[in-house]
Amino acid sequence: MAELLPGIVESGAEAQQLATGFGFTEGPLWHPDGYWLFVDIRASLVHRMTPDGQTSIYRDNSGGSNGLTFDLAGNLILCEGDNRQLGRRNADGSYTAIATRIGDQRINRPNDVVGRSDGSLFFTDPNGRLTAEERELDFSGVHRVSLTGAHTVATRDTEYPNGLAFSPDESVLYVAITRRDERCVIQKDRGEH
Questions:
Q1: How many other C-beta atoms are found inside a 10 Å radius of the C-beta of residue 95?
Q2: Pairing of strands 35-40, 25-31
Q3: Residue 19, phi-psi category: left (phi > 0), alpha (psi -120 to 50), beta (remainder)
Q4: How far apart are CA 26 and CA 29, in angstroms?
Q5: In the predicted model, what is the mean pLDDT of the chain?
Q6: Which residues, at least 6 apart from 171, have a Cβ–Cβ distance to it below 8 Å?
Q7: What is the DSSP string of the chain?
Q8: Could you tell me which residue, 4 or 11, shows the higher pLDDT?
Q9: Exposure pattern of 67-78 as b/e (b: 16+ CB <10 Å)?
Q10: Whose CA is closest to 88, among 112, 116, 68?
Q11: Which of the residues 59, 64, 109, 137 could staple to 46 if both were Cys, CB 3.0 to 4.6 A apart?
């Protein structure tokens, strides 16, 4: 890894555990002010952690937040799975939903989000954690919210879209597909994998 990240990871460096006691962590995001933000999905919390491992609650009742990123203005963007929305933490500390529906249908459960240099946000929206009755969309997809706030579907051609990343020149959007069908979700809920 040191070869891939020169000046970031020292050659031979070993990973260190800085904090523990969380339920299910996801969405690590480095804040430019010098701390990490990450979520505990099961506790519906967003945590703040300093480089020395000191943690505090950044947001409670986070709506089942998962993926995190910043928009061009430096506002925190959150995939709020339980709230079924993509949200934004505004400069004044309030929260605003920025994507809840596509047309007249409610989105599924936003999972991960990434920002592009043009200000657009892309987020995954799998439907595997909803019952058939709860689903309004008949697909799992990747959505795009433009800098102007226009919400469109980038692709419906995904089975269970999860993580996202752009290539360095942003010409390719990589989408991780982590579950192939409903059986995987059921098995995970049972603790089978």
A1: 18
A2: antiparallel
A3: beta
A4: 9
A5: 89
A6: none
A7: -TTTSTTTS-TT----------SSEEEEEEETTTEEEEEETTTTEEEEE-TTS-EEEEESS-SSEEEEEE-TTS-EEEEETTTTEEEEE-TTS-EEEEE-EETTEE------EEE-TTS-EEEEE--TTS-TTT--SSSEEEEEE-TT--EEEEEEEESSEEEEEE-TTSS-EEEEE---SHHHHHHHHTT--
A8: 11
A9: bbbbbeeebbbb
A10: 68
A11: 59
CA distances from 163 to 17, 21, 152 (A): 23, 24, 19
Q: What is the pLDDT of residues 82-91, one digit of tens each?
A: 999 999 999 9
Q: Percentage of the chain with pLDDT > 90?
A: 74
**Phi/psi at 59 (nearest 5 deg)?**
-150, 125
pLDDT per position as a tens digit, 105-116:
999 999 999 999
Q: Residue written as tokens 């929260």? A: 95
